[in-house]
Amino acid sequence: MAVEKVLIAKPRGFCAGVEMAIETVERALKRHGPPLYVFHEIVHNLHVVRDFTERGVRFVQSIDEVPAQAKLVFSAHGVSPMEWQKAKEKQLEIIIDATCPLVEKVHREVRKFAAQGCWIILVGHERHDEIVGTSGEAPDRIRIVANVAEAQMVDIPDPSKVAVLTQTTLSVDDTRAVIDALKEKFPQMITPAKEDICYATQNRQDAVKQLAKEVDLVLVIGSRNSENSNQLCKVAQDLGTRAYLIDDRSQIDAQWLAGVARVGITSGASVPDHLVQAVAEYFRRQGASVESLGFVEENIHFALPPEKHPEISNS
Description:
Blueprint: E1 5-9, H1 16-32, E2 36-39, H2 46-54, E3 57-60, E4 71-74, H3 81-89, E5 94-97, H4 101-115, E6 119-123, H5 129-135, E7 142-145, H6 148-153, E8 162-166, H7 172-185, H8 199-212, E9 217-221, H9 227-238, E10 242-246, E11 262-267, H10 273-284, E12 289-293, E13 307-308
Parallel strand pairs: 1-11, 1-12, 2-3, 2-4, 4-5, 6-7, 6-8, 9-10, 9-11
Antiparallel strand pairs: 5-13
């Protein structure tokens, strides 16, 4: 049996934060030329990182790798105050902070709750760049939990003063289960007025739930280190639909398609749409029809961040 129909999820791909971060690097390259240093991957996508690397962007894991007087961009995932201070001490030519505004919102919440004397439980994955940066806002007052089991075991010095925040790219359903477990353990806990999981994560997961009900197999385009891409795969699998995470068309395994008539395609929030179209074209050439599925229109855009000159500014 050949694949007869392909459904492409809508929305998918770039969110406003990723668009802003990528355009920030594009603008800096155009204005200043290479080499341009970026602290961590600007977004978690193999193809985006490879393209920028070929054009003179140097991705680093430590401020120590950045030479004095260089040009530096902070990635969309956010950084801790300690890294900001290290960068300023380098007397860099410019520093551009491309942190997603929705991640920055969580940073502000950490600072606010810490100032109020709260202990903060951060739901997320300890080694993820976003969690590393966020926890650096108040490292002595933060506990990180990744799942229900850890939520049930977490120890807080003062259970009456607990605030809970989350990584922006998590599974909505999994996070709800962790929050419920924490509420049971800490009945007085505080949560922010608005959920931390970003609109794009929510929309893409909702679209995949719809997609998974209509197809035999879901292909999620995204890189292994992309949390939101992994979560899209998991959302489909939790509904009983086979799903695979691939970087691009070349990773499609023909064995996956045995007995499959309908394939769904979506992509993580840091994935260029040409990768989606290449996968769709792969099936179109084999005779499959291609349609979109979904109705949510996203029209959110974030302003590009200003360039800061550490030698003349303390901001």
